């Protein structure tokens, strides 16, 4: 999980006590324990979108949720031949034009979850569930 600053994201989140105090690690461990999982995901924050994209593994399908310019629903995307996927979620306000361009230039397909704008945490859960089902993980 890579938390980045976006042009339209709320700047205060990136500077919150959660990150400064390291409290995010306690929440991560608590969530893993609740799920009965012993493996913690990699978490980064404070990097740019480009730095984060450059650190992503090769060979994964790449999707970015976008309610404003996406032509296809995530449910219609073909994952045949892929073993993994990367999902980029922006703020509820959406990606800025330059961010969309950067995502497209780096192999991301803009997709949506329907015409309504969802809260980021809701969109994240819904999209990950759909991707896991399409990949045959659930």
Under CATH, the homologous superfamily reads SPOUT methyltransferase, trefoil knot domain
Would you tell me the overall average pLDDT?
Answer: 92
| Helix-strand makeup class | alpha/beta
- The helix count comes to 6
How large is the share of residues in beta strands?
A: 15-25%
Distance from first to last alpha carbon: 20 Å
Total number of β-strand segments? Answer: 6
CATH class: Alpha Beta
Helicity range: 25-40%
Question: What is the CATH architecture term?
Answer: 3-Layer(aba) Sandwich
Largest sheet: 4 strands, parallel
In short:
Helix content is 38%, strand content 16%.
Question: Describe it for me?
Answer:
- With 138 residues, the protein is an alpha/beta fold.
- It has a single domain (2-134), classed as Alpha/beta knot, CATH 3.40.1280.
- It is 38% helix and 16% strand.
- The chain has a 4-stranded parallel sheet.
- The two termini are 20 Å apart.
- The mean pLDDT is 92.
């Amino acid at each position: 999980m890579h938390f980045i600053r976006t042009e339209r994201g709320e700047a205060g989140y990136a500077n919150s006590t959660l990150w400064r105090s390291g409290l995010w690690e306690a929440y991560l461990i608590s969530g893993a324990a609740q799920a009965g999982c012993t493996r913690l995901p990699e978490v980064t924050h404070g990097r740019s979108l480009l730095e984060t994209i450059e650190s992503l593994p090769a060979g994964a399908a790449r999707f970015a949720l976008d309610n404003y310019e996406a032509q296809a629903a995530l449910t219609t995307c073909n994952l045949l031949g892929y073993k993994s996927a990367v999902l980029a979620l922006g703020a509820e306000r959406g990606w800025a034009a330059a961010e969309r361009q950067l995502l497209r230039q780096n192999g991301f397909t803009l997709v949506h979850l329907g015409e309504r704008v969802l809260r980021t945490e809701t969109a994240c859960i819904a999209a990950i569930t759909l991707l896991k089902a399409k990949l045959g993980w659930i």
